[in-house]
Write a structure and sequence with these properties.
6-stranded mixed β-sheet; alpha+beta; about 30% strand; 8-stranded mixed β-sheet
């Protein structure tokens, strides 16, 4: 049967929430044909001016609306009367021989972008032997060829000439636009590529016609009246949109106008996602205004369709008989009203409504989610009225608070598609969220950056997707968010970057969070100084491998001395000697302090090391206890803090920067017996010495295996640099509640010295919210080997250790390093989550974030190493500008050996930095895993949900509300 399909949407309890049926009445007819297949083919061939091939023929029941007939379906390839390409489906009544229906797979259209830019563009290509080819292996199927030749191949990976008449340049534009749309589908709409399984389709450039089209398997690009290839962003986005229409439930056989509008909507979404600057194709809602196909400007207008060719703004009974492109008007109009509203302001055009109502927009990304959600509920023979019902169902699933539902309904009413019998209702709980900033101000000089954390929480209802934007920034100031969209309850790192030309003054920046129709704001005060005093030199990267080497040595010392380094033992004294020798060799002034009162009998000495440069009357201290408990080697507690300080001290000596303040390091004895070594030191300080110490920073357990990210006295002035560095990695650190009063910083608090420090957690259990934010396992201790024999060099998280060491260096440079002539360009890199469990046959996504930590932003190429056989890592995009993020997909093939692997993610620009991702592949060899929000699934993946197994039938990224029993278009019960 063609046209009798049904989509059923059920909730997790099996309750049917929506039914979309292509046929509305019972079908009963004879299945005996009177007309032969050959007769049907002859009748069908008459529908084309030239038939080149009969692709297939079959006997079907053709259901359309309330009518069903037995018919021969014949598929023909050829040319229409106007010499346009065609792949035509013709349905001939098998009893009377009359043609009862037809539709064409070939969808012709055009777009807006003449050129993409700015040049040079970054596109994903591949290598074939010693040559490069315009083939994207990360999106299987996507490649670009000469219409009259083959795949573009050359000796270098530099493509295009810049000439709009060059087919190779046309292919560069086509590849760029197709890759942007693929990324948009994944990052905005949760779809895994164009075809739903990570793949795409080929493109040909060089059609000698004023046209571009999709033929069911390929996109073909022609030229405009000036003989320029029209592979602009929304031309390509439009044509691939036809492919998306074909590769979602129900196919592309619709009421007139719906297919063309689908292409226009996907083109507009791709334009918005690419967000190109002037003079390139900036986001808009007109079609063809830049390519100027026939010299008459845009060929369609989405905010007011009547402005082009008097196309209809409103739906009426005549739409099904209206020419396909003109009939797209009402759906294009609906999408604009839903995305932007009838009076959006901000330079965006107002849009008339057919019922004189006022419609409030929800943003183009949310509008895209609603429309794509409806595409997953399509049936064959889709109509405007059925699309209303499907989009309302999708909006209700996306927003339990009903505001998205209400806006979707208002947009349909505004174009004349009124209530339908199958429409859902929405009276669910209202959802809302809150927005906060910390800190709420940042005092910086022109040419430098400030950092803040944007916090969100779910106030009522379910968690929502909150998009973050900023307004009010003056010229020369850029505000970015990492990530730019968060789930309420999570946080984002905000970076405010100024240029050297930014005028001095105090500015108010408004940070806005938008979730559906709800928005909340927070104010950030930015005082900008005149600059001119130089910039502190860039903090170096502390080599985490060298930190780990120190930990191995400390572990060896413990194993040679009773398997511990307790303060009263030979293991402690050997540890102190190891640290002392290296500091003396590096040029530090090193002293040992005997604890003459208050310490355990026989306890070893404190070790103090001062870098002999900078103002001796302005001292910043960095300390960690060197002793362990008697139960084990104490490598995380606290070899980790000790080794981090040792390697950072050696890095400072090697860098030898100009110093404005003095740095003093300390390794304490007898901390495990009650902070006795640091307590003796602090009590021994004279009034003069107390005044010299401006702050003390403590580092106790900074490599916990199930790491949290905690800062002592989080909101204090002393904590600002520590907090700023971890915030720049998107970590959103929390107050160290577990460690209050339990480590050496408490000794300094007792004598009135400001304190802060890092910790990654001890015996307390990680909460579910923390696991969602930082990765790791909820309900498990941060360090399950705390004060135990298993606290060895294998009980350390390299990622947490690396972040701690680099944060210490950053703090030293911010507090004590003097001015340098100019900052070097540098960046940081992080992975979130930093750990993951992926079953064979499945995949996971990781957000790889970068931040500009010095100088100007730079291009950073991403790569991965250390993956075992059967594991691959891809990046989308594979190159970013520092401050941006990329999505890494870690795919584990079926049959991959179980085990835990450390993948190294490398960012290469003017500098090179790495971060790590710990991958656990469970045993069993299957592809069965527990379904989770945010995971990416490919067709064939098997998951468990509520004790039942489901197989993925269409690749996608999971959103809230897309649980397997709720979306039968994506999951099939096993």
């Amino acid at each position: 049967m063609v046209g009798g399909d049904v989509v059923v949407l059920a909730d997790g309890d099996g309750k049917v929430r929506s039914v979309q049926s292509a046929a509305k009445s019972r079908i009963a007819l004879s299945t005996k044909a009177r007309v032969t297949a050959a007769q049907a083919v002859r009748t069908s061939r008459a529908r084309l001016a030239r038939t080149e091939k009969v692709d297939s023929r079959r006997l079907v029941v053709r259901a359309r609306g309330d009518r069903a007939v037995l018919a021969w379906e014949t598929v023909l390839t050829g040319r229409t009367k106007v010499n346009a390409p065609s792949r035509l489906h013709v349905f001939v009544d098998a009893r009377t021989g009359a043609v009862v229906d037809s539709y064409d797979d070939v969808r012709a259209g055009s777009g807006t972008s003449k050129w993409n830019g700015p040049n040079p563009l970054t596109i994903d290509t591949s290598r074939s032997g010693s040559s490069y080819v315009l083939r994207d292996t990360s999106r299987p199927g996507l490649q670009c060829s000469d219409y009259s030749g083959g795949l573009f191949t050359k000796a270098t990976d530099n493509w295009g000439t810049g000439s709009p008449a060059s087919k190779e340049t046309g292919c560069v534009d086509a590849m760029f636009a197709a890759q942007k749309e693929s990324d948009m589908l994944k990052n905005w709409l949760g779809r895994n590529g164009h075809d739903g399984n990570g793949g795409s389709w080929p493109v040909r450039v060089g059609l000698n016609e004023l046209d571009a089209y999709w033929d069911g398997s390929t996109i073909t690009i022609g030229h405009n009246s000036a003989n320029e290839w029209i592979a602009g962003i929304d031309v390509v986005g439009h044509e691939f949109g036809h492919g998306l229409d074909s590769f979602t439930p129900g196919g592309a056989n619709h009421e007139s106008g719906l297919g063309e509008a689908t292409g226009d909507i996907m083109g507009a979404l791709t334009e918005a996602y690419a967000n190109e600057p002037t003079p390139y194709d900036t986001p808009d809602y007109t079609v063809g205004e830049m390519i100027n196909l026939q010299g008459r400007g845009p060929i369609r207008n989405m905010y007011n369709p009547s402005l082009v060719g008097n196309n209809p703004n409103c739906y009426s009974a005549s739409i099904p008989q209206t020419e396909e492109h003109a009939a797209a008007g009402p759906l294009n109009h609906w999408f604009y009203l839903l995305a932007e509203g009838s009076r959006p302001g901000g330079g965006k055009p107002s849009s008339p409504t057919c019922d004189n109502s006022t419609v409030t927009g929800v943003g183009i990304q949310n509008a895209g989610k609603v429309f794509y959600g409806a595409m997953l509920l399509k049936t064959s023979g889709m109509t405007y009225k059925r699309y209303r019902t499907a989009t309302l169902t999708a909006a209700k699933n996306l927003d339990a608070g009903c505001s998205l539902f209400d806006s979707t309904k208002a947009a349909w009413n505004a174009i004349g598609v009124t209530a339908q019998g199958g429409d859902p209702t929405c009276t669910g709980e209202q959802t809302d969220f809150s927005l906060s900033l910390g800190p709420t101000s940042g005092d910086i000089d022109a040419g430098s950056s400030a950092h803040a954390t944007v916090g969100t929480s779910t106030v009522s209802g379910t968690a929502q997707q909150v998009s973050l934007t900023a307004s009010g920034a003056p010229a020369g100031v850029n505000v970015s968010f990492s990530p730019a969209t968060v789930t309420s309850g999570s946080s984002s790192a905000m970076t405010v970057s100024t240029s050297s030309a930014t005028a001095a003054g105090t500015y108010q920046i408004t940070v806005t969070g938008t979730a559906g129709a709800r928005t909340h704001t927070a104010q950030y005060t930015l005082p900008v100084g005149g600059g001119g005093g130089g910039n502190p030199s860039t903090p170096p990267d502390v080599d985490v491998a060298k930190v780990q080497a120190h930990l191995v040595q400390l572990n060896t010392i413990a194993s040679q001395n009773g398997n511990n380094r307790r303060s009263t033992t030979a293991g402690y004294r050997a540890s102190l000697a190891y640290v002392k020798d290296r500091l003396q060799a590096a040029g530090y002034t090193v002293t040992e302090q005997s604890c003459t009162s208050g310490c355990t009998a026989g306890a070893g000495n404190n070790l103090i090391a001062e870098w002999p440069k900078g103002d001796a009357n302005s001292v910043y201290m960095f300390g960690a206890h060197l002793d362990s408990v008697s139960a084990g080697p104490g490598i995380n507690d606290n070899g980790s803090g000790s080794a981090v300080l040792l390697e950072t001290a050696l890095t400072l000596a090697q860098s030898d920067p100009a110093m404005k303040n003095r740095i003093r390091f300390a390794w304490w004895t007898d901390e495990e017996q009650g902070m006795k070594g640091s307590g003796f030191y602090a009590r021994s300080l004279s009034t003069t010495e107390l005044a010299r110490i401006k702050a003390y920073y403590n580092f106790d357990m900074v490599g916990s295996t199930n790491a949290g990210y905690f800062v002592n006295n989080l909101d204090s002035a002393a904590a600002v640099p520590l907090k700023a560095y971890w915030s720049s990695l998107g970590l959103a650190p929390q107050e160290n509640v577990e460690g209050r009063g339990r480590s050496d910083d408490y000794s300094f608090q007792q004598v009135g010295i400001p304190t802060s420090g890092y910790a990654t957690g001890a015996s307390d259990a990680k909460s579910a919210a923390e696991a969602a934010k930082w990765g790791g396992t909820a309900g498990r201790a941060y360090d399950s080997c705390y004060h135990s024999a298993c606290d060895t060099s294998g009980n350390v998280n390299a990622t947490a250790l690396n972040r701690s060491a680099d944060g210490v260096a950053y703090t030293i440079w911010k507090t004590a390093v003097g001015d340098a002539p100019a900052p070097a360009d540098d960046f940081s890199i992080s992975a979130n989550p930093a750990t993951g469990t992926v079953s064979p046959g499945s995949s996971a996504t990781v957000t790889v974030s970068t931040a500009t930590t010095g100088g100007n932003a730079q291009s950073v190429s991403l790569s991965a190493s250390g993956a075992p056989a059967g594991v691959s890592v891809s990046f989308a995009p594979s190159s970013v500008t520092s401050g941006q993020s990329s999505t890494a997909t870690v795919r584990v093939d079926a049959g991959t050996a179980s085990g835990t692997y450390t993948l190294t993610i490398t960012g290469t620009g003017e500098a090179t930095h790495t971060t790590t991702y710990t991958l656990t592949v469970p045993g069993g060899g299957g592809g069965d895993t527990t379904w989770q929000v945010g995971a990416t699934y490919a067709a064939g993946d098997v998951v468990t949900y509520d004790g039942l197994s489901y197989r993925c039938i269409q690749g996608h990224t999971a959103y809230p509300g897309w649980e397997p029993p709720n979306v039968p278009a994506l999951w099939q019960r096993v």
